[in-house]
Amino acid sequence: MNKQPNERTGSNGEKAVGVETAANKAAAKDKFAAKDKITAKDKSAANAEKSRGNENTERNKTSKAAETGKTAESENSAEEVQKMLDVLPDFRGIFDSHAHYDDEKFDGIRAPLLEGLFSGGLSGIVTCGCDVDSSKAAIALSHQYKGMYAAVGFHPENLPPHEPELSALLPLLEDEKTVAVGEIGLDYYWDIEKPLQKAWFEAQLVFANRAELPVIVHDREAHADTLALLQKYKPRGVVHCFSGSVETAKELLKLGLYLGVGGVVTFKNARKTVEVCEMLPSDRLLLETDCPYLAPAPFRGKLCHSGLIAFTAARIAEIRGVTVEKIIKTSAENAKRLFKIAE
Ligand SMILES: [Zn+2]
Fold first, then answer.
1. What is the CATH number of the domain that holds 138?
2. How far, in Å, is the centroid of ligand 1 from the Cα of 52?
3. Is 19 helix (H, G, I), strand (E, B) or coil?
4. 217 pairs with which residues across the strands?
5. How many angstroms is it from 99 CA to the middle of ligand 1?
6. Taking every pair of C-alpha atoms in the chain, what is the biggest distance, in angstroms?
7. Which of 42, 56, 87, 225 is the most exposed place for a label (fewest CB within 10 A)?
8. What is the pLDDT of residues 207-238, one digit of tens each?
């Protein structure tokens, strides 16, 4: 896909977080206009589901249902969920280190789905925020299920133009179910101004280190800059849905970071991810979905949920020549170690 033209010309390109100027306001207005265009573009591309192309569609639309708790979900949705779960291989013990259960795509089936997954033996889920509202929704969800944990942060596609929003994250870091700062990082696929992205990423890395929380990092087509900032701040954490080379992976591993592997590894064009799975030490692998996006084969393009990690784990087991049980067990231990979750 071609990149979008730069639609944020109202900005001076150098503004730091915390400086609210007329230029910033113009940029903010522009940003929201650009976001609408991205959403429209993404909607039209959704059916094609080109690799990660639609991953972040409508990321900022926090579900009302997730904010307010359970919806009136009918018996029909319970039946629908049962059908979704019946087709799965054994998913007991799986820890999904990266999900977005506040997403409106789960409206109507969220509660029966999560109840079905946890009662079926799923070990845990970290559901990630992308802005203040979705971070609050993540925390609300984490308090409804024992095995659900929250990450709070601003995704690079959801950056507000000034600092007060950033300080709104601070109380959320204190919640007992908050286990990480995320999803944060850099995304150079979309044309979102780089200085703004870097400023917010850095600010949130500082927050995480101060709060002694690990980070959940999004790096899309920004491997060099992401690595440089991780080398500078040396947080604990995971680079989720890792899409870089073996060389970049080695540099991240040197920093003690974990790498998240999701449904992409089951795709036919997953050569780089397969190479990384071959070399990744077993104590640094995290399984993830990024659901509702990036469902693994044979469900590619369908609604993704944590139970489908069974297919991702099976593919990684095949690549590494070990049992799927070993992959599931080791990666769950890794997630609990990183997020400091007691057994
Ligand atoms: Zn994500």
1. 3.20.20.140
2. 11
3. coil
4. 184, 239
5. 6
6. 58
7. 87
8. 999 999 999 999 999 999 999 999 999 999 99
Residue 74 in any domain: the answer is no
DSSP H or E segment with residue 238: strand 237-239
Tens place of pLDDT per residue across the chain (343 aa): 333 333 322 233 333 333 333 333 333 333 323 333 333 333 333 333 333 333 444 444 445 445 444 444 466 788 899 999 999 999 999 999 999 999 999 999 999 999 999 999 999 999 999 999 999 999 999 999 999 999 999 999 988 776 667 889 999 999 999 999 999 999 999 989 999 999 999 999 999 999 999 999 999 999 999 999 999 999 999 999 999 999 999 999 999 999 999 999 999 999 999 999 999 999 999 999 999 999 999 999 999 999 999 999 999 999 999 999 999 999 999 999 999 999 6
Tally the domains of the chain.
1
Is 6 contained in some domain? Answer: no
- Domain extent, residue 170, equals 22-68+84-338
Task: Compute the distance from residue 49 Cα to the ligand 1 centre, in Å.
Answer: 16
d(CA 21, ligand 1 centre) in Å? 31
Residue type present at position 124:
G
Residue of 179, 185, 220, 190 lying closest to 205 (CA atoms)? 185
Which residues neighbour ligand 1 (ion) by CB within 5 Å? 183, 290
Residues 250 and 275 sit within 8 Å (Cβ to Cβ):
no
In a domain, residue 8? The reply is no
Q: Kindly report the pTM of this predicted structure.
A: 0.81
Distances (CA, A) of 45 to 41, 50, 53, 192: 6, 8, 8, 19
User: Rounded to the nearest whole angstrom, what is the distance from the C-alpha of residue 14 to the centroid of ligand 1?
Assistant: 27
pLDDT tens-digit map of 30-87: 332 333 333 333 333 333 333 333 344 444 444 544 544 444 446 678 889 999 999 9
Q: Could you tell me which of 185, 246, 189 has the C-alpha nearest to residue 216?
A: 185
Asked whether residue 249 is domain-assigned, the answer is yes
